[in-house]
Each structure stands twice: as C-alpha cells, then as structure tokens.
Design brief:
single chain; about 450 residues; alpha/beta; Aspartate Aminotransferase, domain 1; Aspartate Aminotransferase, domain 2; 2 domains; seven-stranded mixed beta sheet
Length: about 450
C-alpha cells in the first residue's frame, strides 16, 4: 500500500503539533506505525492522500451515522455558509434543532447546546453541583467523559490506549483537589455504590455513567444496575447523569435511555447531534435546567454555542433519522455481521492462542480479543492485557485489504447507513484473512 503522501503529511504534522496530532488516538501509537492522512469521504468510504480507499468503520468515532458527505447534510451546510457561520445571537436554527430533540425524547424538557461532548459533561456536572448544593461526583472506572479535569480519573478512550496500565489512567496536570471530589468505583458493583452513599451521601451531587461504556471496549451493563443507580440517586437527592455522547441518536433516536426506559435527570450529547460538525449538548428536566444562567445562577456560556452551521447540520441529520429507515437498516446489517462472524470467524479461532468475541449493540460493535472463551465483559479490568499486540497485527492486515478500523484495541466500531450487505461481507472476509495471516 502506497503511503508516501501520508508519510509526508505526518512528518509535517510532527513539527507543528504535539505528537503530530490534534487528538491522541489519531497518532496510531498503539498500532505502531505512521497514520494515514485522510483526504475525503463519500458514503461508507474514505480516501487517503495517496488515493487508497477504505471501507470506514470509524466514522469519525461515531458521528457519521449517515455516512460521509451525505448530500442533504452537505447541502444544508453549504446553503447556510453563504449566509453566515456565527452571529453570537439567538437564531431559528438552534430552535429548529432544539425543538426536534425536545419534542421527540420524552425524558428531555429543556436543552442547551455547546461545542463538544467534553463541554457538555463539564457543564452538566457544574449544573448538578449548583442544583443540589453538593460537591462530589461518582464516576465509574473505564468510563470516559471527555478531557474535563474532574473526569480524568481512571478513564477510558485515549487514556486507556496510552497509559499501558488500565488501572492508572489519570493525566498529569489534573490537581489532586479536582480528583478528590470524584469518587471512582468499578462498574457493575451495587454494593460499593451503596457504601459510597453511606460514606458520602450528604455530599454526592450526581452519578455520571456512560449509558453503554464504549471507550474501553463495549462494556454492556446490566439494565438492573442502571435502574439501581436511578433508584439510589433518587433516594439520596442526587442526580443521575447519563452520558449519551456515543449512544445518543445511535441506539434509536432517543438513545439508550429511550431504548431501555431510563428516566435520567440530565443527559449529555455529542457526535451525531452535530451531523459531523462540532456540537455537544446537555439536557434534562426543566426544574434543573432553569438553574442555568441567565434563568438561574449556574454560569455557562459559549461564543460558538448553537452556531448556525452546526445547527443546520445537526437538524438535517436528526430529521433524516426520524423520517428514514436508518435504524432498521443498521440493525439488519448488525444482525448480518453477527451471523457472518459466528459462521466464518469462530471456527478459525480454534487453532489460535487467543479468542475474539464480537460484542454488538445495534450499530456499535467491538472485537474483544482475549485469552478466554466468550464471557459477559462489564468491567475495564476484565480486558486482556495481551489484546493490543494482536489487534495491531489484525488492524494493519485489514487496512491493507481496504477496511478502516479504529487504531486501538479499546475503541469500538460503527456501522453507517450507506453500508450494504456486501460491505459486511468485505469486513468479515478481511478479518478472516487477517486472522489467517497474523
């Protein structure tokens, strides 16, 4: 595979960006080679600067549920661009997107737009503390809630990739005082959550959890555990914050909470909500949201929040998700992926010293590489420490065959609406060849 132009861009990047990138996992550090530089994307394919084409299962880490350069989304952005990108004032565009969400998700009464998922989490936590008058936050080991200081304690995503030790994922530069207000507990342990409330219940403002932890593999939680979190927060007058940055509008329009009938106090969004442009949001019950400035005293602001380009991209995307057969098609493709994987991949693994377990939730999937048989994996500490080396070999074999996966064993993959059955066949064939030759 010719990568001369990608290598040239990488060498330029190293001189001007820390580590050569503007977001860590893009550096391909965990798979051991130089990254490819992407030039363009159309539908389910992306193309690098050397004109290699790849069937894309990264999809910009989730936002591109309609695929790359969707015609309707692109047209909406272009139409708005000639009329202005940002005004720092209220517009009908933010009303259009806000109403579409509030009117179609029953557990949301009000919403506020920001510019990223990290910003959404940061703001939701401040609001939770301001509303309850309490200070401490419970989060769970391996759940990633963006790069906000208070949440960089035993987190997932790029931190897991680069730390080398999944039990120590905090970043230098985070003062001890920040992490002191964050109680980190293992996932799927009701007893320890109960004990935390016994010890600190009067000062716990909220529990925050990824609706389906998807930054340290895909750690599907028991719904009874999530419902337990809802119950114990209510009992202790704390808030339940569901981080749906990944699962929002991915597991159906109303996300994880709608699918499993969870009634959170606050929800954080990102990725799909912006249609490929930088958008985040936090939303929830009016009683809580009305504490935000200028209605209330909890301050939050953003110069580019609700900017017209992002709003029309998000509105056009979400409108299509409501009107088209997007979710039905994606779920059919994921069902085919499961069938093909079980039929063709499982038998290859009998002669290997490792196992690959395909974990799927709607159009999100993860290849859990382990040294055990298939199990219910719910905690980050259950991930095998030998997975990264094996995944690196598989990653490059698949890339050479034209399939683009996340450059980390701990990141998930995403299906997109333009994909067809032939694309699932190509993925499985590519994985099959990678296993045979690695």
């Amino acid at each position: 595979m010719n990568t001369s132009k990608s290598n040239e861009i990488w060498n330029r990047s190293l001189k001007i960006f820390p580590g050569g990138v503007n977001s860590p996992v893009r550096a391909y550090k965990s798979v051991g080679e130089h990254p490819i530089a992407i030039k363009e994307g159309h539908g389910s394919y992306i193309f690098d600067e050397d004109d290699n084409s790849f069937l894309d299962f990264v999809n910009s880490w989730g936002p591109m549920i309609l695929g790359h350069a969707d015609q309707d989304v692109s047209a909406a952005i272009a139409k708005q661009a000639v009329n202005g990108a940002s005004f720092g004032a209220i517009t009908r565009y933010e009303c259009d997107l806000g109403e579409l969400i509030v009117n179609n998700i029953k557990h949301i009464e009000q919403i506020r737009f920001v510019s990223s998922g990290t910003e959404a989490v940061m703001s939701a936590l401040r609001l939770a503390r301001g509303f309850t008058g309490k200070n401490k936050i419970i989060k769970f080991e391996g759940c990633y809630h963006g790069h906000y200081d208070g949440m960089l304690v035993k987190a997932g995503s790029g931190l897991l990739t680069f730390s080398g030790d999944i039990s120590e994922s905090s970043s230098p530069g985070v003062p001890e005082g920040f992490s002191r207000e964050t109680i980190v507990l293992p996932l799927d342990d009701e007893e320890l959550v109960t004990q935390a409330f016994k010890n600190y219940g009067n000062d716990i403002a909220a529990i925050i959890i990824e609706a389906m932890p998807a930054n340290s593999g895909l750690l599907k939680q028991r719904i009874d555990f999530i419902k337990f979190l809802r119950k114990i927060t209510k009992e202790n007058k704390s808030l339940l914050i569901m981080d749906e940055v990944i699962t929002g509008f991915r597991l159906g329009f109303s996300g994880f909470c709608g699918k499993y009938n969870i009634d959170p106090d606050l929800v954080t969004y990102g990725k799909i909500i912006g249609g490929g442009l930088p958008v985040g949001a936090f939303a929830g019950k009016k009683e809580i949201m009305q504490n935000l400035s200028p209605a209330g005293k909890v301050y939050q602001a953003g110069t580019l929040s609700g900017n017209p380009l992002a709003m029309v991209a998000g509105f056009t995307t979400l409108k299509k998700l409501l009107e088209k057969d997007v979710y039905q098609k994606l779920n059919k493709l994921s069902a085919l992926l499961i069938t093909e994987f079980n039929d063709k991949i499982k038998k290859l693994l009998k002669d290997k010293k490792y196992n690959i377990q395909l974990i799927v939730e709607d159009s999100i999937f993860w290849l859990n590489i382990s040294n055990t048989a298939d199990v219910d994996i719910r905690k980050v500490t259950d991930i095998w420490d030998g997975a990264a080396d094996i995944y690196s070999k598989i990653f490059w074999k698949m890339l050479e065959s034209g399939v683009h996966m996340a450059p980390s064993a701990y990141e998930v993959g995403f299906l997109s609406y333009p994909m067809e059955e032939k694309d699932i066949h190509l993925f499985v064939e590519s994985l099959e060849n990678a296993i045979k030759t690695s």
